[in-house]
Automatic annotation (TrEMBL):
UniProt keyword list: Membrane, Transmembrane, Transmembrane helix
Protein name: ABC-2 type transport system permease protein
Superkingdom of the organism of origin: Bacteria
Pfam families, A to Z: ABC2_membrane_6
Organism (species): Fontibacillus phaseoli
Transmembrane segments: 61-78, 118-138, 150-175, 208-227, 233-254
Length: 266
């Protein structure tokens, strides 16, 4: 099937999913507001501690807010367009994956728009903390306006990296079927840890978050250049390379995993 036709069908599936969700507009708005409040409370806990002690290992409250916001927005971008990758287990257990195999388009493109979500609450929360953090650092002269396009760039590359990690983890389900516990480690726990400076952790954990599960490249590594002027501008090019490498590897692993899929028969 041609790429143009696949993308047209992908857009149609997204529009259908959005139309279905927007039938209950009040529920959508209420859920978005509650999601924003719940998410922002996580950062407020850290902000209260930082307000008292000033900084943690040389990282100010604005810098940690920046790390937190970039990770949140990267995750939101990934989950908006590919949330069902994270929920592949239910397709494998229930046998619904068989239906995706019969669609006249690549299986991954058929999976991604299922139950498409507009994560407005996460966007509001992440966007607010990002604007607050950048505003504070701009006011002090720590960063200039160049930080804005750089930040948009790393949010995009971060989403690609998180998607790649999620896809690789989901692919393991073709052998194990159950992957929720593994996802708690590779996606949820790793991402939560990387919301804060990796200098807080022992060397083995820092290596884990940079090499084995490369969530450190989503926000920590680029922030060393954008916020602190360390490493050099080459970091942004290297970051794009890491994102492309992760995506290519995860897609190849996914294609191999599908060949090992066995229907549950349900």
């Amino acid at each position: 099937m041609k790429l143009k036709s696949c993308l047209a069908m992908y857009r149609l599936l997204i529009k259908t999913s959005i139309k279905s969700r927007m039938q209950y507009k009040f529920n959508f708005m209420l859920a978005s507001v509650l999601a924003a409040l719940i998410q922002i409370s996580e950062f407020l806990m850290i902000a209260i501690v930082l307000a008292k002690f000033g900084a943690i290992q040389g990282w100010s409250i604005y810098e940690i807010g920046y790390l937190f916001a970039v990770m949140t927005l990267s995750k939101t971008l990934y989950r908006t367009f590919a949330d069902e990758v994270h929920h592949l287990e239910k397709y494998l257990v229930g046998g619904d994956f068989d239906q995706l195999l019969t669609r006249p388009m690549p299986v991954l493109l058929a999976l991604m728009p299922q139950n498409f979500r507009i994560m407005l609450g996460e966007v509001l929360q992440g966007g607010f903390i990002l604007c607050w953090s950048l505003g504070g650092m701009m006011h002090s002269g720590q960063v200039g306006w160049a930080a804005v396009p750089f930040t948009l760039f790393i949010i995009f590359t971060g989403a690609v990296i998180l998607f790649s990690i999620g896809l690789a983890t989901a692919t393991i389900g073709f052998w194990t079927t159950r992957i929720e516990e593994l996802q708690n480690f590779t996606e949820d726990a790793a991402r939560t840890a990387a919301q804060y400076p990796l200098t807080l952790y022992p060397k083995w954990m820092k290596s884990l978050l940079l090499i084995v599960i490369p969530v450190g490249f989503v926000n920590y590594v680029p922030s060393l250049y954008i916020l602190k002027g360390e490493l050099g501008a080459w970091v942004l090019a290297a970051l794009a390379g890491v994102a492309i490498l992760c995506l290519a590897a995860s897609l190849r692993f996914w294609r191999f995993g599908i060949t090992k899929y066995q229907s549950t028969g349900s």
